[in-house]
Every structure is written in structure tokens, then in C-alpha cells.
TrEMBL record:
Protein name, entry field: F-box protein SKP2B-like
InterPro entries the UniProt entry points to: LRR_dom_sf
Protein encoded by which gene: LOC103505292
Species per Swiss-Prot/TrEMBL record: Diaphorina citri (Asian citrus psyllid)
Length: 332
């Protein structure tokens, strides 16, 4: 009787034979576009993932022709362990590979791992390669990613794209990526804080115009995480009389003045206005704002003897003492 071979063993043997043929084709540079198309059309994506995993186990040098034969938009896992060896990608290889990924319009990928062991890429080539990687991430490749391994090669631009689009991300390895600083980490962690300060201010200027012109009249719910600032809170405090729910989480352009603007709506007076127009005032009870310009030394209100003030911040107390040197009673 002929020797019996288990189906699993037979499959493994066949897989090795197919992989050997692919490696030979790639090595001899016989991978014409028609050949690549034929291979991909006859080998299911799952099979090509197994071929790639087997290729990694063989510790063969990186070969772009081989990558073209097995990688396309149908793959859910792209893991390149050959980056661990001394025969890893060069800078030009990295650019070529990332450009190819972008051309494939990959959008089903769950695991993207390039296991670099050494920093071998020149900075200029690394940036160009990451430019194409960011294009891929922005065009849908990041949508289903749960695992990303990019030691030595990640930079701020890559982290920004991951923060914007990788909503399923569970595992990230960016060890020894020296082109990352605190801005890159911030973009990754605070994935919705994406607006430049100048553009944020311009957008909030038009928002305030809308609030002042009647948009705020019937608002009961306002959700503005990451983007609200003092000017927006001032308008909300003045005009949103029906406000029930407000979310301004992680809006880093808000300080104690902004919160005061919101809670004490509106101010009775600006203390600087009182200073200029009521020089003979002796008794004052009010919710007042002390603006930045009042925090420097100003001519005192010498007539004021009693003041009960709600101030917009602790930092304004010194300015109040400077403006009211003759006050016999001051309640804040």
C-alpha cells in the first residue's frame, strides 16, 4: 500500500512548493504584471497570508517582487519579519513598499507589522515612505487595524493618522522611533484635537457671531469637546438661557476666566469700566470681570470704601487691591 499522508501535511507540503515557485519567480525578476495578476486571481487572500508567514520563517532577504505577488487589498494581515535580519529593507525599499500599499487601496487590514530591529533608514527616505503610509491610513487602511508594529520608523505624521482613523487599535509598538516627540504622542492620544490654533480661533469667531445673533436662544444641549474657548463660553453664558447639558471636555484653550464667563452670566460690569466711568463710587456689590489689562498698575479708585465682588479668577485679586487701595471692607 502507498504511504498515507495526512491532509494537513499534504497542504503544508503543497504550500512550501508554491512558495518555492514564487520565490524563484521573484528572484529571477520574471514577475510581469500579467503573472502577478494571475497569481493573485488563483490564490485566495488567506492562502497568500500563509505564504507570507512561511516566507518570514525562511528568513529570506526582502524581495519586492515577492511582495507584489502576495500582497493586495484582500489581505487582513501583513507581517514582515525579515525586517529583523541584516538583509532588511533599505530606505528605497521602504518608499517602494509604502507606495505599493497605497496603490493597492488596502482597507481590510487588521494587523500591520514591520518588525524592524535596527534603524537603517535615512531620515529623508523615512519621511517619504511615511508620507505614502499616511496616504494609505487616511484612505481607509486604518479603519480595521487592531495591531500596528512600526519600531524605529514611526514618526509624528504616522501617529496623527493613527489617532484620527484607528478606532479599533488595541496594540501599538513604536519602540525606538526617534522621530516622535510629545506633539506626536498628543496627536495619538487626543485623537479629536486636530485643529491648528489659528483656525480654531477663526472658527470660534464665526460660532460666537451665530450665538450672538440668536442661535443660542433655544439651545439646551451643547457638545464642543476639544474646541471650545473663552469666547465661546462667554457667548453661552450670555445667551444660552435654556442650557441644560454642556460638554467642553479637553478644551485646552479655556481657563478660569472662561469658566467665570459661563457661570456668572453675564457680568454686572467690567471693573475697568467702573474704574473709568464711576470715579466717585463709594459702595459696590457686583459680579465683575477683571480683564488682563487691569492686572497692571492703574490709577486707584480712591473714593471706594466698601466692595463685595465676585471675581473671575484668583489672579485678579492683586489687581483689585491695586485699584482699591482705600477700601475699608473688601469681600470676594
Amino acid at each position: 500500500m502507498p504511504k498515507l499522508i495526512q491532509v494537513k501535511s499534504l497542504y503544508t507540503i503543497t504550500l512550501k512548493q508554491v512558495n518555492s515557485i514564487l520565490c524563484e519567480l521573484a528572484q529571477n525578476e520574471q514577475c510581469s504584471p500579467d503573472t502577478v495578476t494571475w497569481i493573485k486571481s488563483h490564490l485566495h487572500g488567506n492562502i497568500r497570508e500563509q505564504l507570507l508567514a512561511q516566507f518570514n520563517q525562511w528568513h529570506l532577504p526582502y524581495n519586492f517582487n515577492y511582495m507584489k505577488c502576495v500582497i493586495d487589498c484582500s489581505l487582513k494581515s501583513i507581517v514582515l519579519n525579515e525586517c529583523l535580519s541584516n538583509r532588511a529593507m533599505t530606505g528605497l525599499n521602504y518608499i517602494e513598499f509604502m507606495k505599493y500599499l497605497h496603490e493597492q487601496n488596502i482597507c481590510n487590514l487588521c494587523n500591520f507589522s514591520l518588525h524592524f530591529k535596527k534603524y537603517l533608514l535615512e531620515t529623508a527616505k523615512l519621511k517619504e515612505g511615511n508620507y505614502y503610509l499616511c496616504l494609505s491610513l487616511n484612505n481607509g487602511m486604518a479603519r480595521n487595524l487592531t495591531t500596528v508594529v512600526l519600531p524605529y520608523v514611526a514618526d509624528n505624521s504616522v501617529l496623527k493618522c493613527l489617532g484620527q482613523h484607528c478606532t479599533q487599535l488595541v496594540y501599538l509598538d513604536i519602540a525606538n522611533s526617534w522621530n516622535i516627540d510629545e506633539d506626536g504622542i498628543f496627536n495619538l492620544l487626543f485623537k479629536k484635537y486636530l485643529l491648528e490654533t489659528a483656525k480654531l480661533k477663526e472658527g470660534n469667531y464665526y460660532l460666537c457671531l451665530s450665538l450672538n445673533n440668536g442661535m443660542a436662544r433655544n439651545l439646551t444641549t451643547v457638545v464642543l469637546p476639544y474646541v471650545a474657548d473663552n469666547s465661546v463660553l462667554k457667548c453661552l453664558g450670555q445667551h444660552c438661557t435654556q442650557l441644560v447639558y454642556l460638554d467642553i471636555a479637553n478644551s485646552w484653550n479655556i481657563d478660569e476666566d472662561g469658566i467665570f464667563n459661563l457661570l456668572f452670566k453675564p457680568y454686572n460690569f467690567n471693573l475697568l469700566w467702573i474704574h473709568q466711568h464711576c470715579p466717585l463710587l463709594q459702595d459696590l456689590t457686583a459680579c465683575v470681570m477683571v480683564p488682563e489689562e487691569a492686572r497692571s498698575l492703574l490709577p486707584p479708585m480712591s473714593a471706594l470704601r466698601s466692595a463685595a465682588l465676585t471675581l473671575n479668577s484668583e489672579h485678579t485679586l492683586l489687581a483689585v487691591f491695586q485699584m482699591l487701595p482705600c477700601a475699608l471692607q473688601l469681600t470676594t
